[in-house]
Amino acid sequence: MAAPATIQCCAPIAREPLAEAEAAELAALLKAVADPVRLRLLSMIGSHAGGEACVCDLTDSFDLTAPTISHHLKVLRTAGLIDGERRGTWVYYRIVPETVNKLGALFAPLAEPAATGRVELELLPV
């Protein structure tokens, strides 16, 4: 008779459930990045050399009008994911790490599983 198979379930990805206010805040951030253009803009700004990108560096990557790109940047800025600074004619955008890290923390696996995080189930042969 073969030894019973053991299945190990994964540890939870969160230490505790979200509070109502925290869930509302995270939902607003998720809504802001739920658009492919905004998600690309955020990644382009975050990965740009020097940690900031001029709007002039962003617009050529899209087949969209400048006002449409500006609208998407405004949504990201209103959500607190990016910040901008006008320098002459151009606006330079940079990631707001504290806000972006909130999104990352939502999906990052825990470094240490909770005490009840691993459950072993023993499957007996039928």
Task: Summarize the helices and strands and which ones pair or pack.
Blueprint: E1 5-8, H1 20-33, H2 36-47, E2 52-54, H3 55-59, H4 66-78, E3 82-87, E4 90-95, H5 97-107, E5 120-123
Antiparallel strand pairs: 1-5, 2-4, 3-4
Features:
two-stranded antiparallel ribbon, 3-stranded antiparallel sheet, alpha+beta, Arc Repressor Mutant, subunit A
Describe the fold and architecture.
With 126 residues, the chain is α+β, with helices and mostly antiparallel strands. The protein has a single domain (5-13, 26-111), classed as Arc Repressor Mutant, subunit A (Orthogonal Bundle). The chain contains 5 helices and 5 strands. The strands form 2 sheets. Strands 2-4-3 form a 3-stranded antiparallel beta sheet. A two-stranded antiparallel sheet has the order 1-5.
Query: Element order, helices and strands?
Result: EHHEHHEEHE
Q: What's the β-strand tally?
A: 5
Specify the CATH class. Answer: Mainly Alpha
The gyration radius over C-alpha positions equals: 21 Å
Major beta sheet, strand line-up: 2-4-3
Low-confidence stretches: none
Task: Provide a count of the helices.
Answer: 5
Mean pLDDT score: 83
Find the structural class using helix and strand composition.
Answer: alpha+beta
CATH superfamily grouping: Winged helix-like DNA-binding domain superfamily/Winged helix DNA-binding domain
Percentage beta strand: 15-25%
Shape-level CATH architecture? Orthogonal Bundle
> Shape, please?
elongated
* Major β-sheet annotation: 3 strands, antiparallel
Total individual domains: 1
